[in-house]
Write a structure and sequence with these properties.
Structural class: alpha/beta
CATH topology: Rossmann fold
Largest sheet: 9 strands, mixed
Distance between the termini: 14 Å
Number of strands: 11
Helix content: 10-25%
């Protein structure tokens, strides 16, 4: 499966996501990368069954200029509604100030405490967590603001700061959206259970599950 991945922002270098997705290449994934937000185009996105959004609203790590405009937001919504799959991970949820992308995701980041031990727990029996067991790593414990409407939460994260939704899905038109909030550090991505989650989520977004 060929997947387009958008990465790199002021707080999240592209290297973390590259390291975290690399093991999945052994499962047949081919990842194409956009680091500079100005290189994004709706026409390019349309060539892929799944897009991974792991980038907040900065052009690059060095350039904090926003890259998302209302037109970009609408293009993401159109892409999903026409049958595309969108997987938003960690920094790809930092879009609380948007009017179209925020409800498309179903929930957005609002804040996080200092990094701490976070336990990620799957909802037993949910198809997105097949083969996934609970795990604990040091991470940013994202505090989320959920949108009104229906999302299917299959993952929670718990720390001394409480419990938050950490993974959910929603259907938009003919397409699928999945959100995974863990992942500030490469060690989180490389945790075996999280590798299984990523594989499950990508295949679900592509309509293979």
């Amino acid at each position: 499966m060929r997947v387009l991945v958008l990465v790199d922002d002021h707080w999240h270098p592209e290297s973390v996501v590259r390291e975290g997705l690399a093991p999945l290449e052994d499962k047949g994934y081919v990842f194409d990368w956009i680091e500079d937000g100005t290189e994004w185009a709706a026409e390019r996105m349309a060539d892929y069954p799944v897009v991974v959004l792991s980038k907040s609203n900065n052009v690059t790590q060095a350039d904090k200029t926003p890259w998302v405009t209302p037109e970009v937001e609408q293009a993401f919504a159109d892409y999903v509604r026409l049958g595309g799959g969108l997987l938003a991970t960690h920094s790809g949820t930092v879009y609380i100030g948007t009017d179209t992308l925020r409800p498309l995701l179903g929930g957005t980041f609002i804040e996080h405490p200092p990094q701490c031990e976070v336990t990620v727990s799957p909802q037993s029996g949910h198809p997105l967590v097949a083969g996934v067991s609970s795990f604990t790593t040091e991470d940013e414990h994202y505090q989320m603001q959920m949108e009104d409407g229906v999302v299917d939460v299959f993952l929670t994260s718990t720390s001394e700061h409480g419990t938050q939704p950490a993974g959910w899905t929603r259907i938009e038109g003919d397409g699928r959206v999945c959100v995974l909030t863990p992942g500030h550090n490469a060690e989180v991505w490389l945790t075996p259970a999280y590798q299984v989650l990523l594989d499950n989520a990508l295949r679900w977004c592509a309509g293979e599950a």
